[in-house]
Design goal:
Helices cover 46% and strands 14% of the residues. It has ten helices and eight strands.
Length: 273
């Protein structure tokens, strides 16, 4: 059972507080219950959050951990003056020293998604997501040349989630294209991919893990059989070696690790954060 509660509070979505806080908490093996409290954009909401945090402190008999990215000074003051938790103010820790170092004041913008209607980067990100959805699993060859990266590999090797992660997190137009038995019989790349060889990045996976994943989708089928998975993975990896395609195994890697490796390899000029 969790022995401590961590609150992630923000006057925006709370995603930054939660991401940063979880990265820190991952360094400790203590079980933690996590609670996100987003959109604390006025004093009333701040008082409500403080009451919830203090109630948790009374029940658990321990100070909750409070990760905050609140930039509204009035709201932050309510939290700091009344909260019984251990407050970890990430903006205060990093923004204030940077203001001193740079000699300028920060814009105190609430979150990365503020003023989205005016943000070119946000619209580019949405365009990238739509592009990646339209070019998922080889659905469309149209405008394939606009791809920042084209992921190739056997079915269920992690191409779709990686494509969407690259689009959502980094604004990249990521297509993905399955390698199928017909490609292995021809011993050639699908014709649609040949002109874009420099943008290709391969994903592979251990056959045993692939069989487990495919059996969840189509149990007891030839598609999911271990022998078939071994044959497809072997042929796909052989093709990648022949064609000089950069590739990695997704077997033990998270989507974040896979995406980071791809970014290091392809180094796209257009990259959003």
């Amino acid at each position: 059972m969790p022995n401590r509660t961590a609150f992630f509070i923000s006057d925006g979505t709370g995603i930054t507080a939660e991401t940063f806080g979880n990265a820190i908490l991952a360094q400790f093996e203590a079980p933690v219950r996590r609670v996100r409290l987003p959109f604390l954009d006025n004093v009333d909401k701040a008082h409500q959050a403080v009451r919830q945090i203090n109630h948790t402190a009374e029940i658990e008999g321990k100070r909750p951990l409070v990760f905050t990215t609140v930039v509204n000074m009035e709201v932050l003051r309510v939290v700091k003056e009344n909260c019984q938790g251990m407050i970890l103010d990430m903006f205060g820790t990093f923004v204030e020293p940077l203001e001193t170092e740079l000699g300028i004041k920060s814009n105190h913008r609430v979150g990365r998604f503020s003023d989205v209607s005016k943000s070119e980067a946000y619209h580019n990100r949405i365009e990238a997501i739509n592009f990646s959805l339209a070019h998922d699993d080889g659905q469309s060859h149209k405008d394939l040349q606009e791809s920042d990266v084209i992921l190739v590999g056997v079915s269920r090797s992690g191409k779709t989630p990686t494509s969407l992660y690259l689009a959502m997190q980094h604004g990249l137009k990521a297509s993905n294209y399955p390698l199928i038995p017909e490609d292995f019989e021809r011993r050639k790349l699908p014709p649609a991919l040949v002109p874009h060889r420099k943008k290709l990045f391969g994903l592979t996976i251990a056959p045993e893990r692939l069989a487990e994943i495919r059996n969840e989708r189509r149990p007891n089928s030839r598609y999911a059989s271990l022998d078939n998975c071994r044959a497809e993975v072997s042929e796909a990896e052989a093709m990648m070696r022949r064609e000089g395609i950069r590739w990695l195994s997704t077997t033990t890697k998270s989507i974040e690790e896979i995406a980071t490796t791809i970014l290091q390899e392809i180094r796209p000029e257009r990259l959003a954060y």
